[in-house]
From TrEMBL:
Compositionally biased region (Pro residues): 43-59
Renumbered residue ranges of the record's region Disordered: 24-82, 98-131
Name of this chain's protein: Uncharacterized protein
Basic and acidic residues composition bias: residue spans: 98-114
Organism placement in taxonomy: Eukaryota, Fungi, Fungi incertae sedis, Mucoromycota, Mortierellomycotina
Source organism, top-level taxon: Eukaryota
Pfam families for the chain: mS26 (PF26163)
Amino acid sequence: MLRQLTTRLPRVSSQVRTFTSVRSIDEPSANYRPGKEGFAPGMPHPPGASPSPSPPPAPRTVESLPEMSKSHDHKANGTPTQKFELEMTKLRHAYQREHYEGQDKLRAERERQRKGSLRRLQARQQKDREENVQRLDFERLMQPDGLTGAQRQEKVAQFVQERKAQRAANFQKSCEVAAEKRLESMVRLYHAAEDFITFENLDAKVNEFYEAGLMPGKVYVPTVQDMVAELAENGGQVSHADLVQREQELRDALDGTVSGGKIGMEAVKAKSS
């Protein structure tokens, strides 16, 4: 009896059976991202999990939304309950379409922000690389890399001279810009001298102020943000005085004049030359 049982048992093969669907322990999973998801090399595959997870489903869009089935058309001439169900079906379909449109806009905005962040990151990385190259160039210049002491000192002296010349050029340029600003301020001050308030015309200026019903003026900063904010504060209305002032500033910028068509800095420089 024992001999019959042993003869019926299958023989054990000496070869180990391998399953191709199981991930090797020496290889990472297909979706492995360090610290994010997947399984690292050397980590056994857990039972019951797929070694190659399926990709996430495509997002639903307005184009993928099917049209409402025509099987509901017969409810238009049916009972009040069927008409109500038809209206609710149309309303749910409209809500679903609005939801998908909102999701499309949200995905587009996220993609725009992602591209902007990537662009800023690449610009910052490029700037860091350029700074590192300059720093490494100077370090290589200071380190002995096959050059003699005299050659290295000569290169260092040349680098110092170039840096000194660049700093002098930058300082000269800043001085020229400051001189132009001072000259422009002096020209504006010269043209505004006739409106200065002195002890002799103080009473006349006060009477003129109250008779004209003017309000104390404020400094006008012609920037887009200030113009938009001022326009919002006024309820979207632009006063006639603001229009006249902006038109005069535009003419001054185009003609090279200041203070309402009076001679400007460019004309003063042309006459002096």
